[in-house]
Amino acid sequence: INAEYMGTLSECLFFFAMSGRADPRRPEAEVRYRKPKYPLEELPPDYMSLVALILGIVGLMMRHKTSAWIAFFACIQSLANTKYSEADVKQIVTCVAFSVMGLVLNYVTPHAPPQEA
Questions:
Q1: How far is the C-alpha of 66 from the C-alpha of 101, rounded, in Å?
Q2: How many other β-carbons are positioned within 10 Å of the β-carbon of residue 60?
Q3: Contact 99, 72 (CB under 8 A)
Q4: What is the mean pLDDT of residues 68-75?
Q5: What is the DSSP string of 100-116?
Q6: Is the Cα dihedral 68, 70, 73, 75 positive or negative?
Q7: How far is C-alpha 7 from the geometric centre of its chain's CA atoms?
Q8: Is 49 exposed, middle or buried (0-12, 13-18, 19+ CB in 10 A)?
Q9: How far apart are CA 67 and CA 78, in angstroms?
Q10: Within 10 Å of residue 51's Cβ, how many Cβ atoms?
């Protein structure tokens, strides 16, 4: 590139594209990502399932709508990321039950009217 003339970014990109130079990246230095393989005894914990369970209980017991919705979406994310080989049926059923029942209790059941003093 001419040091006296520094054009716009598009002009510089056009110059490099038309100069016929090879790709400056080195394919031999490329390192591909390989997902680590864990034995079944040492699987990483599923934190979103735990978050869904705790927030589902909070939404169910305290009638807190925000925590019930967060529990519902955390449960969906946990289910989407669970592999079939590491699925625990009791944990899945408990997570789904608490998150759905938290939403049902918040929106379907009638609330008590405020008491007058």
A1: 14
A2: 22
A3: yes
A4: 93
A5: HHHHHHHHTSPPPPPPP
A6: negative
A7: 42
A8: buried
A9: 16
A10: 19
User: What is the rounded distance in angstroms from the CA atom of residue 11 to the CA atom of residue 39?
Assistant: 53
**Six-digit token string for 63:** 């009638």
Instruction: Provide the whole-model pTM.
Output: 0.58
Tokens describing residue 71: 């529990």
pLDDT of residue 72: 93
DSSP 8-state secondary structure symbol assigned to residue 20: T
Joined together, the tokens standing for residue 103 give 């939403």
What does DSSP assign to residue 3? S
The residue with greater pLDDT, 99 or 10, is: 99
The DSSP secondary-structure symbol of 22 reads: P
Residues with Cβ < 8 Å from 85, sequence gap 6 or more? 40
The pLDDT of 80-98, averaged and rounded, is 81
- Tokens representing 13 are 């990109």
Tell me which amino acid residue 77 is: Q
Query: In whole angstroms, how large is the CA radius of gyration of the chain?
Result: 27
